[in-house]
Design brief:
Layout: E1 6-8, E2 12-17, E3 20-29, H1 43-62, E4 70-77, E5 80-82, E6 91-101, E7 106-115, E8 122-136, H2 154-176, H3 193-196, E9 198-203, H4 217-236, E10 239-245, E11 248-250, E12 259-269, E13 274-283, E14 293-305, H5 322-350
Length: 352
C-alpha cells in the first residue's frame, strides 16, 4: 500500500510535511532480506535509509529556485548513534528536516523511529546530521548555490553556522591524514589487527548510482557497515551490532564502472566495544587517466551481544606495531571523549 505522497527511490513512500520541501517523512516496512543473523535490521540498511531521505529533501530544496537543475550529493555524515535495534516486521519512519544552508551546502537532520504495527508502539532508533552539496545535472563539477531557508531566530542561524564551520575543518583534517592502506598479514595471531582485518571488492553498477552516474552515499555506507561487521565478528566470534558511526567523510565522488575496495581494521577495544576504521578506495577503470584514490573514510563502533541480546565483554585487541599502538591510543581518545560527552548530557537529568 502506498502512503499519501509520491513514491521515491528505494520503495519508500515520501510524505511532504509543512512547510513544504523543508521537511519530509518516508516509511518502509523491514523485510527478512534487511536482517542480520540475529534477526535485527543491518546498521547499513538504516544508514542507507537515512541518506535516501537526506538526498530527497536536499535535492528538492536545491531545485526550488529558477535556474540550472541539480542533484544533492552527500559530503559528510556526522556521528550517528544506534539507540535501539529495529526488528523485521517493524515499520521504519525516517523524518528529515533542513536545518541550515550555506552558500553551497545543506545541513539535514534526520530522526528514525521504529513502529511495531501490531501494538502501535514507537521508539527512537537513530538521530543523524548530514551535509549535501548541489551538483549541476549538465556539469557534475559545477557546484551550484543553495536557496536560503528561513530561521526561527538569529540564534538558530548562528548555531547552524558554527556547526558548518566545525564540520568543514574536520573534513579537511581527515582528508590530510588519509594515506593509510591495509596490507594482508600471513598467519596472524588471534585478536591481532591482522587476524580480523577484512576487505570487500565491488564493481559499481548503474543501480548503485545517481542520475549523474556516481555512487549513492547510502550504497557506500551500507557496504562499509558490512565490512566493519565482518571485522567485529571475526574479532569476538559472537553476535555483533552497530553501536555508532563516527563522522563519515566523502572526499571524492565514485564513478559508475569503478571498482571499489572497502577495507576495515580494528583500531581500539574497550571492555564492551570495538572501534573499526573503514575506508573506501576507488579504481576508476573507465577513466584510465585517473589513479586509485581514497574516496570515503569513517570509524564504526560495534558491541558484542549474547543470544539473549545482553552485552558481552570484548576480547582485548593485541597491538604489535608502533602504528597499531598509535591508532589504539587515538581510538582510546575518541572513546573517552565520547564517554565524557555522554556523561555530561546525563548529568543534568540525574540532578532533576
Amino acid at each position: 500500500m502506498q502512503l499519501a505522497g509520491d513514491l521515491d527511490r528505494g520503495g519508500f513512500a515520501a510524505i511532504l510535511s509543512p512547510p513544504g520541501p523543508a521537511a519530509i517523512q518516508i516509511s518502509r516496512i523491514m523485510r527478512p532480506d534487511d536482517a542480520n543473523i540475529a534477526g535485527n535490521v543491518h546498521g547499513g540498511t538504516i544508514l542507507k535509509m537515512i541518506e535516501e531521505a537526506g538526498a530527497i529533501i536536499s535535492t528538492r530544496h536545491c531545485n526550488t529556485q529558477a535556474g540550472e537543475r541539480c542533484v544533492a550529493a552527500l559530503a559528510r555524515v556526522e556521528r550517528t548513534d544506534f539507540l535501539s535495534p529495529v526488528c523485521i516486521g517493524e515499520v521504519a519512519h525516517v523524518s528529515a528536516e533542513i536545518t541550515y544552508t550555506s552558500k553551497h551546502s545543506v545541513e539535514v537532520q534526520v530522526n528514525v523511529y521504529s513502529e511495531n504495527i501490531l501494538t502501535g508502539v514507537k521508539k527512537l532508533t537513530n538521530k543523524a546530521t548530514l551535509w549535501y552539496v548541489p551538483l549541476a545535472l549538465q556539469n557534475v563539477h559545477n557546484v551550484l548555490e543553495v536557496p536560503p531557508i528561513q530561521y526561527a531566530g538569529k540564534e538558530q542561524e548562528e548555531e547552524g553556522r558554527r556547526r558548518y564551520e566545525e564540520q568543514k575543518l574536520e573534513r579537511l583534517e581527515t582528508k590530510e591524514r588519509n594515506g593509510d592502506v591495509i596490507l594482508p598479514v600471513t598467519n596472524p595471531d588471534p585478536y591481532t589487527v591482522g587476524h580480523s582485518q577484512s576487505s570487500l571488492i565491488h564493481l559499481v553498477g548503474p543501480s548503485d548510482c545517481t542520475m549523474h552516474g556516481f555512487v549513492h552515499g547510502g550504497v557506500t555506507m551500507k557496504l562499509m557497515d558490512e565490512v566493519a561487521g565482518i571485522v567485529a565478528a571475526r574479532h569476538c566470534k559472537t553476535n555483533i551490532v552497530t553501536a555508532s558511526v563516527d563522522a563519515i567523510n566523502f572526499h571524492e565522488k565514485i564513478k559508475k564502472g569503478s571498482v571499489i575496495t572497502i577495507s576495515g581494521r580494528m583500531t581500539f577495544t574497550s571492555n564492551k566495544s570495538m572501534e573499526i576504521e573503514v575506508f573506501v578506495d576507488a579504481d576508476p577503470f573507465v577513466d584510465e587517466a585517473k589513479e586509485r584514490y581514497r574516496a570515503v573514510s569513517a570509524f564504526f563502533t560495534y558491541v558484542s551481544l549474547s543470544q539473549e541480546g545482553k552485552p558481552l565483554p570484548v576480547p582485548q585487541l593485541v597491538v604489535e606495531t608502533e602504528d597499531e599502538r598509535r591508532r589504539f591510543e587515538e581510538g582510546k581518545g575518541r572513546y573517552l571523549q565520547t564517554k565524557a560527552k555522554r556523561q555530561a548530557k546525563m548529568q543534568p537529568l540525574t540532578q532533576q
